[in-house]
Design goal:
mainly alpha, transferase activity, 54% helix
Length: 112
């Protein structure tokens, strides 16, 4: 009767590989386009790392092979998925899950 992410490695595995899930789409932080982007990782994020660190800083850490990049990305992704399932629960209760889901799937398929 639900979705179980308790034992899912996807948020941390993707984080270790430089992939971050955001409300606007998926970021590959290793791409050069993030090198000079000093905006927060995810301004809508709920993890402390989301507004504390910039995409440029995380890109730098990943480019240098610094383990902190994987830790920050993993923390961000776990918080993102916790927020995502919380929002899903709220939309199910409100009776408008289907349109919300269609919007979120479209966003999460975007590569930024």
């Amino acid at each position: 009767r639900g979705v179980d992410m308790f034992d899912c490695v996807m948020p941390t595995r993707n984080g270790r590989n430089g992939q971050l899930f955001t409300a606007e789409g998926v970021i590959n932080i290793r791409n050069k386009k993030w090198e000079a982007d000093f905006s927060p990782i995810d301004p809508e994020g709920t993890a402390f790392v989301d507004r504390l660190y910039s995409k440029a800083y995380l890109h730098h850490l990943a480019a240098c092979g610094e383990m902190l990049a994987a830790e920050i990305a993993s923390l961000h992704n776990i918080a993102f998925y916790l927020r995502l399932v919380t929002m899903a629960r709220e939309h199910i209760a409100a009776g408008d899950f289907t349109p919300w889901k269609q919007q979120m799937v479209a966003r999460l398929q975007r590569r930024l």
